[in-house]
Specification:
Largest sheet: 3 strands, mixed
Distance between the termini: 26 Å
Oligomer: single chain
Mean pLDDT: 42
Strand content: 15-25%
Number of helices: 0
Radius of gyration: 13 Å
Number of domains: 1
Number of strands: 11
Structural class: mainly beta
Strand order of the largest sheet: 10-9-11
C-alpha cells in the first residue's frame, strides 16, 4: 500500500475502502513510487513478470501494449501512450471491463481507451 511515496494514481490513491488495489501482491512503499524502476517483487514473485504485462496469455493493457526497451514499465510519472495517460484521473476501462475489477477506483465517469 502507498504510505508516504508517490502514487501512480495521484487523483485516486491506490487504496479503496482500506484495501490495496493489488490484494494478491500488496505493494509495499516507503517513499518509493508504486512501480519503481524494476518490477515489483512480493513474496518472491514479480507483480509484472513478463514486462509487456501478460497474464494467462492476455495483455493487461490490450489497447495500449506496453513496449519494454530496458526502461521501467511504470516510470515515476503516469504512462503516456499516443499522448494519452494510461492512468488518467478516472478508472481505466478496456472493452467495458475495468483493469482493476476487484477494487474499482471510484469515480463518476470512466475513460474508454
Amino acid at each position: 500500500m502507498i504510505s508516504t511515496g508517490q502514487s501512480l494514481f495521484p487523483n485516486h490513491p491506490v487504496i479503496s475502502n482500506g484495501q490495496s488495489l493489488f490484494p494478491c501482491h500488496p505493494v509495499k512503499s516507503n517513499d518509493q513510487s508504486l512501480f519503481p524502476c524494476h518490477p515489483v517483487i512480493s513474496n518472491g514473485q514479480s507483480l509484472f513478470p513478463c514486462h509487456p504485462v501478460i497474464s494467462n496469455g492476455q495483455s493487461l493493457f490490450p489497447c495500449h501494449p506496453l513496449i519494454s526497451n530496458g526502461q521501467s514499465l511504470f516510470p515515476c510519472h503516469p504512462v503516456i501512450s499516443n499522448g494519452q495517460s494510461l492512468f488518467p484521473c478516472h478508472p481505466v476501462i478496456s472493452n467495458g471491463q475495468s483493469l482493476f475489477p476487484c477494487h474499482p477506483v471510484k469515480s463518476s465517469t470512466f475513460l474508454q481507451l
